[in-house]
User: Which sequence fits this backbone?
DNA sequence: AACGGATAAGCTGCATACAGGTTTTGAGTC
DNA sequence: GACTCAAAACCTGTATGCAGCTTATCCGTT
């Protein structure tokens, strides 16, 4: 787990998969903010490997559209355009309802405990907010939800849209801390209720509901009033990306 | 367009993206059948590049689960397990209905002509069936449907599931030629009707319907009676893949 | 003849050198 | 001082060599 520690002395052998998920993790967690440049040589030094596996790892996440590599320039983290954010969220709203429909796995006692734990932590967070903790609790919630999905394809798509939505969504946690914590507690409370009944379908619809709320917050505070300097710089980059996508 | 011609003399510079889509194309079109081994050195010689861009291209399609690379062994094309086929088709049934829902682009006269052309070709095919022609007409139909999708994320997912379903689905065209051609004509007829009304939503539901039929054919002729020797050898490989996925 | 083990062949994984492209810098000129 | 253009710095893209792993082969033994 080398998200914070740079582990130069550790003799651990990193696989391409490790590096891939670590880079993606850093993008989702805003360790790499939109606009930031990823240098292959730098990462290679950090992970104690050559540029080759780094290139490989970056190439393998390129299909998510979160990074853009240009010859002679570098690999930059791109923020999604407003249109892309809309597309991702519209899709997530649809996928959410399928979580409980497409052969979900049975709910166990461990699930109830997992959500209980998250709920406690979220309540603590409500008292003393910290963006990083918020992101981490949310991430673990997402991992749990994903584990419910029995359909491999849906699980893959659900994860992809999460990664795409995360960096935009988590940008909010720097300014709307109060709302975010309250919303998270509310979501976990709803999930808790559904778990008592053991209704997997309900979990999907609860997800849908709260994704809708989150989308609304993004529209209100990020898309409507573009006050965030990160969003401003990112808009230029994503503009470039659009013309290539189209 | 080097699917059939091996173009050793041509001085064209292939980008990694070219190679990537070409390899994927060959897998979908069954030029590379499940179980076949892709050798980096071989492909490198064919495209007139070194192993590096070939590796890059293969790595970029690895997330689809259609190829599996093992150290010291090679990269083999894998057939999806029966569970994975079910997952992909269940997902495609859901995605199909979203085509007309999630901001599709307007239908033009060019669309009507495109489908008309395909319908004519399909009717010809019905008289004299040829697996390759069937695959190509179907592929162009898929490209057209994809072009209707206005939501970037949905378009990406739709394409991914097509690639995953294609090689399984097209395996049928070798044995059930008559059914397949008739079904294709019927599908195009339905689409033709929907286009006259200009109803994009209907197109999505028509897709859903015919994907359901295709799924049924696969269940009947591939999954129930495992007579195909390709499927038998592929099952071993995909078995390996499963334990890794899980 | 059947079996076991060393060896050779063949593949991918990684490191490194170099080529090609882009941006920045700085000297020279008007 | 502002502007132009060349060169240097820095990045990614590609080729290549070697190390490591896996499998097939073949010889020696039982």
Assistant:
């Amino acid at each position: 787990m080398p998200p914070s520690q740079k582990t130069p002395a550790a003799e651990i052998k990193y696989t391409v998969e490790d590096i891939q998920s670590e880079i993606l993790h850093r993008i989702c967690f805003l360790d790499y903010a939109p606009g930031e440049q990823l240098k292959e040589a730098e990462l290679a030094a950090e992970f104690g490997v050559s540029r080759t596996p780094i290139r490989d790892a970056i190439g393998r996440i390129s299909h998510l559209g979160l990074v853009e590599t240009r010859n002679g320039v570098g690999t930059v983290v791109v923020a999604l355009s407003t249109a892309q954010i809309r597309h991702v969220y519209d899709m997530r709203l649809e996928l959410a309802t399928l979580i409980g429909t497409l052969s979900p796995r049975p709910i166990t006692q461990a699930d109830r405990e997992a959500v209980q734990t998250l709920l406690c932590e979220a309540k603590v967070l409500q008292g003393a907010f910290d963006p990083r903790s918020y992101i981490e609790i949310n991430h673990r919630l997402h991992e749990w939800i994903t584990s419910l999905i029995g359909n491999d394809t849906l699980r893959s798509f659900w994860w992809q849209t999460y990664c795409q939505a995360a960096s935009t969504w988590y940008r909010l946690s720097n300014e709307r801390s109060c709302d975010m914590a309250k919303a998270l507690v509310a979501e976990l409370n709803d999930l808790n209720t559904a778990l008592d009944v053991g209704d997997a379908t309900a979990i999907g619809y609860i997800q849908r509901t709260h994704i809708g709320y989150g989308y609304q917050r993004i529209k209100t505070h990020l898309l409507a009033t573009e006050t965030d300097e990160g969003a401003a710089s990112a808009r230029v980059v994503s503009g470039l990306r659009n013309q290539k996508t189209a």
About this structure: The radius of gyration of chain B is 19 Å. Residues 1-10, 226-246 of chain B have pLDDT under 50 and may be disordered. Residues 16, 49-53, 56, 70-74 of chain B lie near DNA strand D (CB under 10 Å from a C1').
